[in-house]
Amino acid sequence: MKIKVKPDDFYVEEKINVFPKKKGKFALYRLEKTYWNTLDLIHYLEERYHFRKFQRLGLKDRYSHSIQYLTNSWVRKEPITEKNFSLQFLGFIDEPLRNENLLGNFFRITLRDLKKEEGEKILLNLPSVKEFGFPNYYDEQRMGEARHKEGFLAKMLIRSDYESALRLYLATPSPYDEKRVKKMKVFLKENWGKWEEAETIAPKEYQPVLRFLKEKGNDYKSAVKKIRRNLLTLFINSYQAYLWNEILRNFLKGLPGIELFPVAYRYGELLFYKELPEGIRDYLSNLSISSPAPRAEFPPDLSPIVEEVLKKEGLKVSDLKLKLKMRGIYFKPYLRKAITIPQDLEISGLEEDEIYPGKMKLRINFFLPPGSYATVLIKRLTI
Question: Does position 61 have pLDDT exceeding 80, yes or no?
């Protein structure tokens, strides 16, 4: 099975609860894109068109056709259209976009390169997914900064091992890196400390860190602070997501009367159910679990699991602190629903795949609440 063969194979559109008007303090924009990830494109717009800092609601994958909304205190009414994206001014609102403005995301996904029996299994799984939903795991894209399989940068920051954190950021290539990024990382992996030469081949986002190291020497702690703030936040969220998945996975293992099915992903194994006993279904439907953080609160049946997951990482909850002393950069507790049930889930009949001769394709439409992953739903449909 393949997804994201073409951008239109993975269409995602944010649904929001704000409506533009003629006057207000913030401009509301509609961003449509392909072949850009959200953070890189926002950074490009701020640099190229001199926008102030954008407010966004979510992150959309590079290999998708996505529509999302942004606000900015700087107003540009003329549309911007370039290769693979467009930005359209919609009007004004009184406040910047916040998480509570996101109702969820509508998805239209094409699954390709299916064997007939694979497609039939997905169709058979549809009723149980509609009724019982699926565990609300984070998927691999949330942990993309660790896709080189050399660890999580935030874990290095917890240990105040700033040089190792910078090696992960600057000198640990991944097969998924863009060409220029990989070139810089391969160079620094073999020539750690040659900051001036690395700066000449580095993409723009890495240059402030390399420039600082070139000028100030090996002050690694201060160099970490030169990484874009939104990236540092992502690195923390990435590690929290991995830990949260482990907490939920181990919690499900301890529930009685549930058969679980393992599915491998890049950072280990996820466990899925197909059905839930009525009492457990009601309990899980109302359960939210916090991301691990020093101020997080966990119910009595979850606290030992959290401690065990962190113990395997060589940590305690109290260790989830950073000594960087940067405003806004810390482990924050976020509540996340344990399971999610898709709305308006519909699947077309099996069709011949025009791209992969002899194979089949399926089209799936559905709506998910904020933060839930369409790719996790797909994993569940295929077990």
Answer: yes
Strands (E), 266-377: 268-273, 288-290, 335-337, 339-340, 343-347, 351-352, 360-368
Characterize the bridge pairing of strands 10-16 and 65-72: parallel
**pLDDT for the residue 17:** 97
CB 55 within 8 A of CB 97: yes
Residue 349 has what pLDDT? Answer: 87
pLDDT at 53: 94
How far apart are alpha carbons 179 and 129 in whole angstroms?
A: 39
Report the SS3 class of residue 264.
Answer: strand
Coil, helix or strand at residue 173:
coil
- pTM passes above 0.85: yes
Nearest Cα to Cα of residue 141 among 383, 378, 315, 308:
378
List the one residue out of 135, 74, 89 whose CA is nearest residue 285. 135
**Which of the four pLDDT bands, split at 50, 70 and 90, describes residue 145?**
confident
Closest CA to 102 of 64, 142, 60: 60
Residue 339: burial class (beta carbons within 10 Å; 0-12, 13-18, 19+): buried
Question: What is the spatial distance between Cα 231 and Cα 173, in angstroms, rounded to a whole number?
Answer: 17
Distance CA 113, CA 356 (A): 6
Task: Report d(CA 295, CA 318) in Å as an integer.
Answer: 9
- Kindly list the distances between the CA atom of residue 283 and the CA atoms of 41, 296, 342, in Å, as whole numbers in the listed order: 40, 20, 18
